[in-house]
Amino acid sequence: MDEINAIAPSVFTDNMIIMAETFAVNILFSWIIIHFLYYRKSHRRDFYFTFLLISIAIFFLMFFMTYMLDNMKGKTSIGIGIGLFGIFSIMRYRTDTMPVREMTYLFSIICLSVVNALAAGGIEFQPIVLLPNIAVLLAIMLCEFLLLNKKEATKLIQYDRIALITPDKRDELIADLEQRTGLQIKHVEVGAIDFLRDMAIVKITYKYCGRSDDRINHAIKLKRDQWENVQDTQ
Fold this sequence. Notes:
This protein is mainly alpha-helical and 234 residues long.
């Protein structure tokens, strides 16, 4: 304990300004990614809150685990190992499943925070730390605005008129779905059929006309918390 107390003042004295500058870079790029790229499409305030706080927590976790242990008999590798184990345990041992898009953003935010924290322990601010932040930001922008700028969306529907699911009545099926959903449907696929309840699962591909949530679109039944999320984003 005395050793830690003796180390702490020197760490704060030597690295406080550099840590603050690097933290500012980390929180700025994280906020740009979360607010302008993720939230612009999903409008999920719960993940907005989660991503931003994880970015802050991971940065300070890695910084203090690495550079305080660096002065304690060279145990930097132990600090990094413990820190990374804690980071990826968050992603592995979670209670609720997370959509792929949210998981990708979470992994990107964590990686940026780790890189920035590792760069915050030098004797002066290192401008090269801006390169990975800019690279990740540009990569996400490229995917969001070019590769994932889709013109179509899909939705799973529990359909009750199974008399229209036969291939020869596909035009009637599409017309009925368009009338009942108000969507411009381009393609329909019929999945599981339940003759006992006169119900079938159909997957529709329709013209994208605004914000969609694939996690909800691809669900058959919504849980209570999912309904609350839908209501919060309206």
